[in-house]
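Retry 2 of 3 after timeout on previous attempt. Resubmitting structure tokens to design endpoint.
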């Protein structure tokens, strides 16, 4: 999910309310906080690309972790877009029991269209 791909769509139930604001015509900011659970406790918790988080198929529990996400977009001209994305995965019972740490991902991108 998201730019960081810390969580994949396989065996995942994610509840992530968020809010988005547009302080000016060229800028959009959004924040969300998600609660991730796995559906099948006999299966692993996955990252993107169907990659299982190591050891999670052998641990009990459903709570994978909590995912906080902050996004920003600035469009200074019709041909330039600047994107900012910060994600933090706080490990829940499943990841902690498998001895997997928290993860942070920062992304900054600039797109120029001609």
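Retry 2 succeeded. Sequence:
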């Amino acid at each position: 999910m998201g730019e960081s791909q810390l969580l994949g769509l396989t065996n995942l139930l994610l509840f992530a309310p968020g809010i988005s604001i547009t302080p000016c015509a060229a800028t959009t900011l959004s924040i969300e906080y998600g609660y991730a659970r796995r559906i099948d406790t006999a299966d692993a918790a996955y990252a993107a690309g169907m990659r299982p988080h190591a050891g999670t198929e052998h641990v009990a529990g459903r709570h994978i972790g909590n995912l906080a996400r902050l996004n920003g977009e600035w469009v200074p001209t019709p041909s330039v877009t600047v994107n900012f994305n910060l994600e933090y995965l706080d490990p829940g019972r499943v990841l902690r029991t498998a001895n997997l740490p928290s993860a942070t991902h920062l992304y900054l991108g600039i797109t120029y269209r001609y």
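Attempt log closed. The CA atoms of residues 3 and 113 lie 21 Å apart.
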